[in-house]
Specification:
The chain is built from twelve helices and five strands. By secondary structure, it is an alpha+beta fold. Helix 2 packs parallel to helix 4 and helix 2 packs across helix 9. The longest helix is centred in the C-terminal third of the chain and has 30 residues. The termini are far apart. It is a multi-pass membrane protein.
């Protein structure tokens, strides 16, 4: 199968549409989870949702809808346990995660379903997507995006500083539960393309990548959504292209593409952070005068490569952790 030929297959068209909306919605809610330091919450919800998929296989109902119901129930439980904020809460979360995946595996066996059937939900599967799944993915992803963007100021305020948000009159508990529910819906939206056990990576890794090169919350959110779409589509295409010779599921390839983007962005982020530190090497104190340095062998200028910082009527150049400026035949240390 050639690269262009794969786009003529109906299963590939359905998978690409589902991947596009999954790639948009996952980093959107993931940005708030990262801001709240709950990067692993999606992973926990994914474990609980396995039980929902198994219940759908057992009863003959749609695994997507049973997974949505169980994932929301699990997410609300996780949020309420987290809200208590005691040491027993952490243990209760671990019990919930392990119980979710163990119950899912047992119920799948009772339902007489094969491990291959469950694997398509755990790690994603191109052939398991039908038009009904695509329609549900579009609707649920659109709801997630609408709420994440429309309620962005409120969700950001609660994620950034819950105490300040409470003083400002926001219903912190309601917005925390809303984020948990949206995370649960997103997990089930992306389970067909990425899989329940790997969906958390698509929610977190694009956000971590975007944070390397962005400084504001809005640009991080927009960049993370773009990176999520790129990783989802590129990973899906790679998976389909190599599947003619080897068996590669879509979930792992999507996650590896996302991680590859992070590896490429990390050096750029490090360079930008270092330059930012050099530009602000000193505390903003009032000038205390200056002292004359010895002869300086380097000629500073626009193209010298050192950060230039305006300082009163002249320009300082950051050099080896300190600032100095040309003054006649010598340099003044500032």
């Amino acid at each position: 199968m050639s690269l262009l030929e794969m786009f003529t297959y109906p299963f590939m068209v359905k998978a690409l549409i589902a991947a596009f909306f999954s790639g948009l919605a996952s980093p959107a809610i993931g940005t708030y989870l990262v801001q709240k330091r709950l990067s692993l919450m999606g992973d926990g919800i994914g474990h609980v949702a396995v039980t929902g998929v198994a219940l759908g296989l057992l009863t003959g109902a749609s695994p997507t809808w049973t997974a949505v119901a169980v994932a929301i129930l699990g997410a609300v439980t996780i949020e309420l346990i987290r809200e208590r904020g005691n040491t027993n809460g952490d243990l209760a979360l671990a019990l919930l995660f392990y119980g979710g995946i163990a119950a899912g595996l047992m119920i799948t066996g009772i339902a007489g379903q094969s491990a291959q059937t469950l694997n398509s939900f755990l790690f994603g599967g191109l052939l398991s997507i039908n038009w009904g799944d695509v329609f549900v993915t579009i609707v649920l992803a659109s709801v997630v995006l609408l709420l994440c963007i429309g309620l962005g100021p409120q969700l950001f305020a609660v994620a950034q500083d819950a105490e300040f948000a409470r003083v400002a009159g926001l219903r912190v508990r309601f917005y925390n539960l809303l984020v948990a529910v949206l995370a649960a819906v997103t997990v089930t939206v992306a389970m067909r393309t990425v899989g329940l056990l790997l969906v958390s990576a698509l929610m977190v890794v694009p956000v971590a990548t975007a944070q390397q090169v962005t400084r504001s919350f809005r640009t991080t959110l927009a960049a993370a959504m773009g990176l999520g779409v790129f990783a989802a589509l590129a990973g899906l295409i790679i998976s389909a292209y190599v599947s003619s010779t080897v068996t590669v599921q879509s979930g792992p390839s999507i996650v590896l593409v996302a991680l590859g983007c992070f590896v490429l962005a990390w050096p750029t982020g490090s360079l930008l952070r270092r330059r930012q530190r050099l530009r602000e090497p000193f505390a903003p104190l009032a000038p205390l005068g200056h002292e004359i340095s010895d002869e300086h062998p380097h000629q500073h200028g626009d193209d010298c490569g050192h950060p230039a910082i305006p300082h009163g009527d002249h320009v300082d150049y950051v050099h080896n952790g300190h600032r100095h400026a040309a003054h006649g035949e010598h340099y003044d240390e500032h």
